[in-house]
Amino acid sequence: MNFEYIQDFIRVAEYNSINKASQELNISTPALSKRIKSVEAYFNCHLFYRTSKGIFLNEEGKLVFNTFREMQHSIADLEKQL
Asked: How confident is the model over 57-64, as a mean pLDDT?
């Protein structure tokens, strides 16, 4: 899995919005949506539920989010050590 996709997933989950996350990440909304769908395809399940008020993590998505955050912190720590 592409590390950028992990970071993108985290940002979408934090904003509860693909549109807001795409603006911060400076990529198009359709491109970010495709990346999120790629992460969901990797795990072979939906990780978000979508409403008119935003995009929200479901139970599987929360598990993935927490694991991705741990990975992100571990990588940041590794970068400091190197």
From this structure: 98
Q: Which residues contact 33 (CB under 8 A, 6 or more apart)?
A: 18
Cβ proximity of 14 and 24 under 8 Å: no
Token digits of residue 67 = 């694991």
Query: What's the pTM value of the predicted model, to 2 decimals?
Result: 0.91
DSSP 2-24: -HHHHHHHHHHHHHT-HHHHHHH
> With 0-12 CB in 10 A as exposed, 13-18 as middle and 19+ as buried, what is 39?
buried
**Most distant CA atoms of the chain, gap in Å:** 44
